[in-house]
Amino acid sequence: MNLLLGTFTIGFILSLLAAGVLISFRIFNFADITAEGSLALGASTAAVLITSGAFGPAAALLISALAGAAAGVLTGVLHTKFKINALLAGILVMTALYSVNLHVMGKSNIALMNEETVFTSFNRLLSISESANKTVLILGFPASVKEAAAAALAFILASSGGALLYWFLGTELGAAMRATGNCPQMAAALGVNTELMIIAGLSIANAFAALSGALLASYQGFADVQMGIGMLVWGLASVIIGETLVRDKSVGFAITSAIMGSIFFRLLVAIALRFGMNPNDMKLMTALFVLAALVLPRIYKGGGRFAGAAVK
Amino acid sequence: MYSPAEYSKKIIYSLSKLAPALALIFCASAVLLLFSAAPVNRSQIAKFAIVCYSDTPISEDGVRGIKDGLKKHGYEENRNYKARVYSAHSDSAALNGIIDAVISEEFDLIFTISTPALQAALKKIKKTPIIFSSTGDPVGAGAGESFTRHAANVTGICSLSDFSGMINLVGEIAPAAQKIGTIFCPSEINSVLYKQRLEKAALEKGIKLEAVAASTAGEVADAAESLCAGRGVEIICQIADNLSAASFTAIIKASAAARIPVFGFVGSDAKHGAALSYAKDYYQGGIDSANLAARILKGESPAGMPFEYISKTTLIINKKAALSGGLKIPESVCRRADSIIE
Prior knowledge:
heterodimer; B: alpha/beta; 13 strands
């Protein structure tokens, strides 16, 4: 049960990253690589703030998200004001963030072994002791109370993040943002400041990525400057797996499917790990699982069309 | 807004849309749950997990060392113990999954190789003994306050290089040397630590260290050129980190062109064109951690076992490389060498 709970926790934490990727990839139609840098930026900022003790863990998360937002603004400005290709703008900011993260932490790795994080605060809120390793039965399976609490907190954070994004994309500003992504000329003709929309959208996307990184660092007990590497690919995979499974591109479904995609992807990784195969084959196995999960339903249904259209 | 009938229609529509995804998540969870809840094989045979963060020669040497070391204590794989090797392939999220999988398997002992693997294990595993290796700074990684006061279920082998030993070699071979150089990687915590330790050891002998940073494999060649050009570096003492280990030939190329000899902290350096290597033997590090494991298996508590350094440093001399760098290795040093490449 603990394995399952841990998988769900990581899945929910990384679903915030998937939500960020959803904005850049599905609204603005490009994969914003800044996310890899801002995930590590969020983790390093949170780690430094938490170890400094000057801020509470929740404040540390918020400030990390703001730091990510700033990184997104930078990418947006490079792209819109200086007309740099969106992919390249992302690559540039991601590269720069690597050094920034090293400066933020002052070294490449910060341990958060016994510090107060949102997870320990949440445990205190529920009066769960950190030292005693109590177990409860969930569906008849024994599970550690701490792991269950962590999964619950990750679920709460991911769903409130998703709800917040849903609400925002329904506001006038959010609608203008989606219009900008769908048809910039039309949006501009209607008086929308499209450049501002792109900048704002990328800043929100990277705030989500940074929040995800800050949570990951809090959960796993350390922030490492290399922890963002490869994460964009996982985020993209979650978004695409999610929309393949859900097949409704309206805003609410798109966000829900990104979260579900992230969970499902992490479950497949966990199964591949648990099978205990040769470690060199693990990534191959993960890829095959994802492939099977995407293809099997289609064979079963007798073929459906996969349309990668923008969020409507 | 909506009438109750319309609401229920909407809910039914949502559920029908989400059903396939929910069903798949449910199935995957069930598979995982049944797998991890299956009664663990409580046989007489001991079970060890070996967790690596990345795939490097250093971790491969470590794994080999652990298995060979266990053999010396009478533990033969698949006969009286089972070992499972995990690698996160440098993916932080997968590392957490590995630790969860390790916990659900109820191993008797967990070996970690590299700093992130140790940290992820420390956070979640509080009872099962953890034995780390390939960790340069276990205290900085959060394993304890000092080498003797540490988390109760943790002990291990610290892989810090022998910096003063290396500086002594520099003094013996090139007594007039004033300035040595190295390339370091600011993003690897071990690399930065090693650079500082080398600098300190060098300063004690009045030698200055010139360090150039490189963050990606592509930058190593440029950093090496810059180190060799006009900085007055007489010997390159290359510290051991993942980055320089992966692109060591780039350093050798630049230094050979400038006729500056290279001393390496990695065992294979001399074979690859360094004048000498003075290396902590990561294979020996594996054997050392197997020795700790044997004590724990006999009933000793890891709480009372201080962290140790890798017990063996190997000196390998490459005479040809030394000569082309303008160095003559004194006979006294050659006699101490574990092996000499002519």
